[in-house]
Predict the structure.
Amino acid sequence: MKTFRMNYEKSSSSSDDDNDFDRQGYKKCSGCTGWDHQLICCSACRRCYHNNCHIPPLPTTMAYTDLMSYKSWTCTMCIDIDHISKVMRERTSIPTESRLDNNEMIMASRILLELICDEKNSFQFIELPFKYSDPHYYKAISAPISLNSVKKRLLSKNNYYKSFSEVLFNIKKIYSNNLFYYSRDDPYHAMAQRQDYLLFQMLNKWVPQYRYCLSFTALPSIKSAKKNDME
């Protein structure tokens, strides 16, 4: 099953239910998958978002009723990520600042939003399970984390993440937790596998030096990335 959505293609096909919603002025948020008529829509693709569902969040001044305010706006999924990738791949040293630089922030936002928008596989991992409905999860998993947990940390004003590796470690932790908890015949196990593979594909394509960063302190393999580029 193809779940990779980095190259999003418009589709003219839609279900009857989708058409009914469109006629009533409702659209589907690509972030939370909720239907609403108060969404901001990207001018380059079919995705729409609530202000707080996009990464980074859209300013409150961007109102869905003010078409002029966003008629040329493009979402994070449509930005030129190849340019950011090139800058990060061509680095000759590791950033020394104890926070993400602008390119790392854009790349982290893109990766996270790609995973969230993979709605067929991501819905179980956007939020943590309810403790009252699945108490065993919190007994088995010592460090539970979700996609929205990473999103909140990424957008925190106190610069929670000090390096790009930390972001990736937290995202990978989501899938390692769920692959450990759910049995192989559980649909959630398969969903975690597909999301984990989607993450690997993005890292391999955009920032291959970070493919195997498995801890907060792991450094990107700059030399190996350059070698792979030459092959």
